[in-house]
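Example record

Each entry pairs one chain with its bound ligand, NAP.
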Amino acid sequence: MKTIHTAFLGLGNVGCGVYRLLDMQKEAFASRSDLAFSVDRILVRDLDRPRRVKVSRDRLTVDVDEIVNDPDITLVAEFMGGIEPAATYMERMLLAGKSVVTANKQALANAWPRLSAAAMKTGAGLYFEASVCGGIPVIETLLSSLQSNRVESIMGIINGTCNYILSRMSEGMEYEDALAEAQEKGLAEPDPTADVEGADATCKLAILSTLAFGKSVTVDDVYCEGISSLTREALQFGADMGYTLKSLAVAKEKDGRLQLHVHPAFLPNRHPIASVSGAYNAVYIRGNAVEDIMLSGKGAGDMPTASSVVSDMVKVATRQVHPAVDFQESNRPYLDEDWICGNFLCLHVEDKSGVMAKLFGILSHYGLSAASVTQPRRAEKAERVPVIVTTYPCREQAMRAALVDIRALPEVGSVLRIRMEEME
Ligand SMILES: NC(=O)c1ccc[n+]([C@@H]2O[C@H](COP(=O)([O-])OP(=O)(O)OC[C@H]3O[C@@H](n4cnc5c(N)ncnc54)[C@H](OP(=O)(O)O)[C@@H]3O)[C@@H](O)[C@H]2O)c1
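Structure tokens for the complex follow.
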């Protein structure tokens, strides 16, 4: 039997899940692959913290050098989180010839070229299935299964916290209550900013797009809007028109240029990912040969994430070669203002004649056409009445310019603009 001497960097949620799964599957690894994993060292911050798994104290360490300098350890699994020191520790492991498996999207999205260079220098492997969408094998799909295709677009629900909050809002909850409930259930961090303002999804979209389009995409290339300014009222109005609101990560190649957005958007209810609700994730990929495929499942959680980490560990142990990632710099601009989509405008306007004429005057001035105008039910004695205007697909630049003028109208109170992604 071949024993793979392993070290962990971190023993929190994911680390404990990986530790448990390695134990649960040990007979299967032995019988299927004649393989055993031995977790020799585990780096933590606090040696005395109670752990959810039983680990002998002498295997824990706070000194990363003990792992770097241990020649028996050939595989290191990282689930510390954050960019630093995680990225530097992984780089040191790779330079020491140890293969690295990571669940850390932040470190990967921000330090990928440096990690990849270190891996190439020593021939060590860098594996990261768990860094995007937890248990869903989307990295393997892009790296291997779709090698025969040119990927044309990706549309994903890749942040479970946002999806949970929006699902609860569509059931009638206000944003703050849905967020508080997500925090109570452990689906949102005490500080939810990275999830609800889109930074988490931005890292994941940068990773997916780099693989899908073979270009070095960084987090700065992704335009990002969060969900914290959305209202239950707007969700309900959209639902009445047959749309579901999702926080989407979208990447598409258009006229030789990449366009990358993380933003909330209405999808027609018939879209396959519109029905993916709660903390679930989904990724919808369009390839030139395969056409449309969809992967969905749990995008977080200790055991789903451990599923991806341990599968990567088995790949390292059985020497399954990870295709190299091309890190040529892209010379193509990422033009956010060229984004084309329909728009859903939820306005509150004074209920007097001439207001709608002014509104349509502005839309027409910027070459925008209204696809529908609806005046939903109004609250008794409300000073302003809600009006929903949807537009036909138009350029981002024109919509933004029109919004500046619409917001300047004295008769217009709040204006909430939500993009509409149609099925092509
Ligand atoms: N949780 C999920 O469902 C999930 C899903 C997919 C991906 N991920 C990713 O997996 C990673 C870990 O997430 P998690 O939820 O397991 O985090 P966590 O519960 O906070 O665990 C982090 C672990 O890393 C250790 N650690 C952190 N900084 C350290 C440092 N500077 N030196 C030594 N040890 C350090 C901590 O040690 P102590 O215990 O001693 O403090 C802890 O054991 C993150 O990158 C996350 O984005 C998580």
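Residues 10-15, 43-46, 49, 79-81, 85, 103-105, 130, 134, 300-301, 305 surround NAP (CB under 6 Å).
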